[in-house]
User: What shape does this take?
Amino acid sequence: DTLVGLVGYFDNHGTANDKMLANYILGCYYMSCGNSPAAMRSLHIAAEAADTTSRECDYLTLHKVHVHAALLLMRQNALTDAMAENALALKYALQAKDTFNAIITLEQRANIYLNQGQGDKALSIRSKLYGMYMRYGYAKEAAISQWPLASILARCGNIAGAKCCIDIFEKASGLIDSTGNIEQGRESYYIDKGIYHTKANMLDSAEFYFRKCLVATSSSFDLKDGYVGLSEVYKRRHNPDSVAKYAELARIATDSMYASMNTTHLQQMRAMYDYNEYKLSAEVYKREAVSARLTSIIVIIVA
Assistant: This one.
């Protein structure tokens, strides 16, 4: 409540940058609470508050506003709108002369392409990210960018390329400890590594990583992928009983995953309704503002 009150104060008394920053912070708060509709509304109010005609415009904050809007829309599977927000984010990162965030925005674009099923475009961007990060001295980020690239290459059957990416990631990302365990919350890496070993026909190693993920993760998505991976391993070993066992476990995990996704889908529908309602309201407001301005000009001329 205090934060909302402060945002109201800056909306009434602050500069364009103050209004943008205040609403951006409020949007981040709503994102942290999982309130996507309220977060989207605050982010778009922040974007509308920016004065891009002013030399003092805070383009770096405006970039962040659009990056987070793109992220929310991508989570809601509104991929066309997410791409539009991503394009604005890249534009403002470049205007802010912020190379690091411009590269991150390109990485986000690759994720949108992948969700759209445009794997070739995602691969094209991801193949260039390592060189971009390294060119500007971001060695850790360059190494981290190799994990998603390794995943794409492994699934495409490019075993040598995937192995090269995995080696760079594990050596320089800082996310793998001395015992070979990845940072908590990133256990899906074990799935990608299991897929790599399956494609390379190293089935014992593939089984090891799929089982490692099943033990470490709490994600229903990871559980489903782990069981599917084990089913494929036993299929290659010509063990039909185990294939059937893990296929059934994958089905159960999928049912659980979709039950969760149905609830999320209802939230997404509400978020998109609010998003489109806000865009309509903003358009009406703009038209009213233009009309009022024209009326004032005519009154002044007549006077």
Remarks:
- The mean pLDDT is 89.
- The CA atoms of residues 276 and 282 lie 10 Å apart.
